[in-house]
Specification:
The chain is built from twelve helices and no strands. With about 260 residues, it is mainly alpha-helical.
């Protein structure tokens, strides 16, 4: 939780420095306050809060596989929000991905579905994933009439304020006595993993749309699995199979139907 505070603190500072010659005015914030608060509080802060707490009770691999359903959920939300058409291939892909998640939650034994018990951490990660899907929709909806850099700054600032208010309730009171390595990691995470990442992500999302942007969330389980192996942790068979099912489902859902042209 505390890491989230430092991450967004350095991220907001980096964005403020970048905007020193074109700093957003208060009127800009007031004009777009609804979208900024929704994205900042729900799309960023609540997503991170659920993710951090959820990871306490479940593994990083479970979390990454559940989050990999983001493109499918974003696709469904896009249909109800913007009227984006959903094809049969996308429905098939959603079903395959769902089977992959169920395979994960049953630890490789789908016959035990009737005995399926959701771990608290998995449920929290699932809620975080839904919020991240809504994030794509909200950014596309609310960032239309405001510059990407100003929208990114304001939403990250709201997230930082939220972390500032709640972080003291999750950590013990102690003197800040971190080493140099900690501050280097936090600054890099804030600048590159927060400021630059959200700036580029929001910009790309506004260009290609929520559904296509969500596809890039697919790298989460792959990168997590690679890092897990590099750290010497066990990667079980049901993790691999469920990951493959989710990936196959996502690939199928993104396949475009090609029109066959017959020449007479």
């Amino acid at each position: 939780m505390e890491a989230g505070f430092w991450r967004y603190l350095f991220g907001v500072i980096a964005l403020a420095v970048y905007l020193k010659h074109s700093f957003p005015k208060w009127n800009t914030f007031k004009k777009h306050i609804t979208g900024i608060l929704i994205v900042g509080v729900l799309g960023l802060f609540c997503f991170n809060l659920l993710l951090f707490v959820g990871l306490i009770y479940t593994s990083s691999i479970n979390a990454s596989l559940i989050i990999s359903l983001n493109p499918i959920v974003t696709l469904i939300l896009g249909y109800f929000t913007f009227g984006t058409r959903i094809s049969y291939k996308q429905i098939a892909g959603a079903i395959i991905s769902l089977i992959g998640v169920l395979y994960l939650l049953t630890k490789g034994n789908l016959l035990n579905l009737d005995q399926l018990v959701f771990i608290k951490g998995d449920i929290l990660i699932l809620l975080a994933m839904v919020l991240s899907s809504f994030y794509h929709i909200w950014v596309k909806k609310y960032s239309v009439n405001i510059s990407n850099q100003h929208f990114t700054f304001f939403t990250n600032l709201i997230c930082l304020i939220s972390f500032t208010l709640i972080t003291p309730f999750f950590i013990e009171v102690h003197s800040v006595n971190y080493g140099v390595q900690f501050w280097i990691v936090m600054i890099l995470f804030g600048v590159f993993g927060t400021a630059i990442t959200y700036f580029l992500w929001n910009k790309g999302l506004s260009i290609i749309g929520a559904s296509k942007a969500g596809l890039y969330m697919n790298i989460v389980p792959l990168s997590t699995a690679i890092i897990t192996v590099l750290l010497g942790k066990e990667l079980t068979q049901f993790h691999i199979i469920s990951g493959l099912l989710i990936f196959i489902g996502l690939i199928v859902s993104q396949m475009e139907t090609r029109k066959v042209v017959h020449n007479n």
